[in-house]
């Protein structure tokens, strides 16, 4: 038998009485169902199989639950916490992650970029691209044009780079890998008919990504998301598989694209190339996109199907589902000539 007397709990066992100060009794958390218990000092435990009677008895003696129990059993609180958690995760994704990535990259030694970039290039060579079919003389001419465009920059401000050519079936593309490798696809060179001024604009943009180490930020971001999902799902393989594709698709944030564009503009201005060279690229990409989607629609009509892989936006890499709107960028380069 239990009795509350002043500030003590009395346990009556036949003729014997055990008395414990109420402050030293630990009551088990009230759950919706199940046995109730109270822990006394010296590891003694009282248990009761009738939760309704137990709860009523406690309430009658003014022994209340801690606030957390009331919160746990309230739908309003549960929904409130769920919404709060979603908002917290969204804020962490929107602001926390970019800040974390920037900070992490700032303290990462540059030699890591090199190692990581080489790994990614090996993976891309294995899975995404084939050797280029651009004659080496033409490749060298493009390299030289970019070198000359950069020759007027202060050497101390130059980011190391190395230009590679590859063929890939997804169309015109250019991307930069951490450590300094810039890849131009054959279709990109063909699209602009080898016009080196346009290619310098493209390469300037990619060098901007390298200068700001955007690729490393993607790595940190993907890793952080990967760690969270891996902890949730217990699978670490997808992060490794995702990074190369992500970089090849140049899936940076809009902000990163603006920084790369600003860098390209500086390169063009310093080299005396009209910034409208970049606008030429946008025009050609747009024309190609429209031609592709026309072709795609005709094909759909023919087959009565939709070809998802061949979608018009599929190959847009430098220009850009994630990139700031084309109109904004065109205006940026049109208005960007140095006064
Ligand atoms: Zn970009």
Give the number of DSSP strands. Answer: 10
Largest sheet strand order: 7-8-10-9
Number of discrete helical segments: 12
Structural class: alpha+beta
DSSP strand content: 5-15%
The 3D shape can be described as: elongated
Q: What's the number of structural domains?
A: 3
Helix percent reads 55-70%
Small molecules bound: zinc ion
Taking all Cα atoms into account, the compactness measure Rg is 32 Å
Largest sheet, in brief, is: 4 strands, mixed
Which spans of ≥5 residues are poorly predicted at pLDDT below 50?
Answer: 305-322
Order of helices and strands: EEEEEEHHHHEHEEEHHHHHHH
What's the N-to-C terminus distance? 94 Å
What value does the average pLDDT take? 82
Write structural notes for this entry.
With 339 residues, the protein is of the alpha+beta class. The chain has 3 domains: 2-65, no CATH class; 74-107; 109-334, no CATH class. It has 12 helices and 10 strands. The chain has helices at residues 51-60, 67-72, 75-106, 110-127, 136-150, 186-191, 196-211, 214-233, 237-248, 254-271, 276-303, 326-334; strands at 2-5, 8-13, 16-21, 26-27, 36-39, 45-48, 130-131, 162-167, 174-177, 181-185. β2 (8-13) and β3 (16-21) form a beta hairpin. Residues 305-322 have low confidence and may be disordered. Bound molecules: zinc ion. Zinc ion (ZN) binds at residues 205, 209, 250, 252, 257, 260, 318. Zinc ion binds next to α7 and α10.
């Amino acid at each position: 038998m239990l009795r509350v007397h002043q500030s003590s709990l009395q346990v009556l066992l036949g003729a014997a009485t055990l008395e414990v100060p109420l402050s030293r009794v630990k009551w088990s958390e009230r759950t919706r169902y199940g046995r109730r218990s109270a822990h006394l000092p010296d590891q003694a435990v009282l248990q009761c199989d009738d939760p309704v009677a137990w709860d009523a008895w406690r309430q009658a003696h003014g022994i209340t639950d801690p606030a957390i129990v009331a919160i746990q059993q309230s739908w309003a609180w549960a929904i409130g916490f769920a919404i709060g958690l979603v908002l917290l995760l969204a804020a962490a994704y929107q602001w926390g992650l970019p800040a974390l990535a920037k900070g992490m990259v700032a303290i990462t030694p540059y030699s890591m970029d090199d190692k990581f970039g080489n790994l990614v290039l090996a993976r891309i060579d294995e899975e995404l691209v084939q050797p280029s079919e651009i004659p080496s003389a033409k490749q060298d001419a493009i390299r030289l044009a970019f070198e000359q465009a950069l020759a007027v920059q202060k050497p101390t401000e130059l980011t190391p780079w190395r230009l590679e050519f590859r063929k890939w079936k997804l169309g015109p593309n250019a991307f930069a890998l951490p450590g300094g490798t810039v890849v131009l696809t054959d279709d990109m060179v063909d699209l602009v008919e080898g016009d080196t001024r346009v290619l310098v604009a493209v390469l300037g943009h990619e060098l901007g990504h390298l200068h700001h180490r955007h690729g490393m930020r993607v790595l940190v971001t993907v890793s952080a998301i990967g760690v969270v999902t891996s902890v949730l799902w217990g699978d670490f393989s997808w992060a490794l598989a995702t990074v190369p594709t992500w970089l090849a698709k140049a899936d940076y944030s809009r902000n990163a694209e603006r920084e790369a564009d600003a860098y390209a503009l500086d390169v063009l201005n310093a080299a005396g190339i009209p910034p409208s060279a970049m606008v030429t690229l946008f025009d050609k990409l747009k024309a190609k996109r429209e031609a592709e989607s026309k072709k795609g629609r005709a094909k759909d009509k023919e087959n009565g199907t939709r070809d998802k892989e061949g979608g018009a936006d599929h190959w847009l890499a430098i220009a850009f589902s994630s990139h700031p709107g084309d109109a904004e960028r065109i205006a940026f380069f049109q208005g960007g000539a140095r006064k």
